[in-house]
Amino acid sequence: MPGFSSTIYFPGLPDVTADLNAPAIATTLTAALFVLAMGISPVFWASLSDFYEVRRFLFLCSMIIFAAASIGCAFITNIWALVVLRCVQSVGASCGQSVGAGVVADCYPVERRGAAFGKYFFGVFFGPLLGPIIGGFLIMSSLTWRATFWFCFAFGLFVFILLFFAFPETYRIGSKFDLELPIKQLAKKSYTSSAETIGQSANGGDESANKKENMESINIFEEKNKEQSFPNSSSSEKKKTMNPIAPFFLLKHPFILFAAVASGIAFGCMFAVETITPDLYEVNYGFNSWKTGLSYLGGGVGNLLGAVVSSQTSDRLLLRARQRRGGQEIVEDRLSVTLWPAFFIFLPFGLLLFGWTIVYRYSVWAPIIGFGAINFGMNLVMTSTSAYLVDALPGQGASVTAAANLVRMVFACVLTIAANPMVAAIGAGWTCVFLASLCVVGALMLLLLKLKGEKMRRRSGHH
């Protein structure tokens, strides 16, 4: 929803500027501030979710906000009012950015979470690519660019109805589900084995009496262990407080910051390229709005392939690493070998192919393939880093996802604002060289996290 609504009107940006008699920077802000709001507001959604222990109700409220802002955008006649309403629309659309990741953590155990995140992020990042394709056709109608917001209004109502009738509440305490239940099962098995050994080796007494006595002791121990593992609210649980900015403080931990910045670089580079595409294709290839929309199909294919690869490999590589270690799990196993070709090869290669083939006006298929490679690499990076963060902080999936999402959207906002001026100043080729250099920096950060992440977590108290 957020990615889809952020880009659906991109093919009509020149029409928005002309129709509202707006300066170019104001039109850019309708996209850049939408992305920034998409980074800030999930933190508040996540805080509400963790405090009230709900998912479904927040989704329903967010869709009402989204639909109301969308219909306002359809009637707007002033560019600055459009900027404000786009921010409100972003607030409504962005609930799924953090709470949606919490739902994934609710529904899937650790060993299946990588595949689930692959599917989740396919939806998240296919949206920005599907949006311009649909928007390109809608803009050709008599309603012009306003048709895109009418579509968002109708889509928001459809999602609201779907959630209301088909989506159950999923919230659960992730730290108990992920960590304590397996330990309890192993402990119970150990107690049973101990009881049998004691019973078999007992001398000078009735065997059944010994077993009964042993099992009574075990039951007492299990009750005590149960009280320790699942304490009641009056004795052990800390009183809950809602602090909307608390997720921001998670970024003080280096292992969270490194993963968030690396994924932010990948997402920001993709979004910057997506923003400059309409103008570049119009100037260099003479594309109109619907042809520009169709050109985003290359990114959609790359995103689809990235989702397939990540869902097939992430959990498999995690389990393989765990087996090599004799069953011991390390969270950094999530940073698998698929990351390195994604960050060192596909993202830089795709960026350079996109930029320089447009500069020399090669076949339009070359930048389309380049954009597909960018999205393929980005999906692999986003899936691995997001699953890593959720696994590294059990029970805080929504909050840590919101904090990482803020970093991603800040990168996307800054690079979106800077992209068009950079293209005008140094050209598309050198702009993409700059973005490719950022990708190398992000790859080095993840490499450091792979090697030193366990020590970082231990120093932060999250080992």
UniProtKB/TrEMBL annotation:
Residues 1-454 form the Major facilitator superfamily (MFS) profile domain. InterPro entries: MFS (IPR011701), MFS_dom (IPR020846), MFS_trans_sf (IPR036259). Its main location: membrane. It is a multi-pass membrane protein. GO terms for cellular component: plasma membrane. Pfam families: MFS_1. This is Major facilitator superfamily (MFS) profile domain-containing protein. It comes from Rhizopus delemar. The lineage of its organism: Eukaryota, Fungi, Fungi incertae sedis, Mucoromycota, Mucoromycotina.
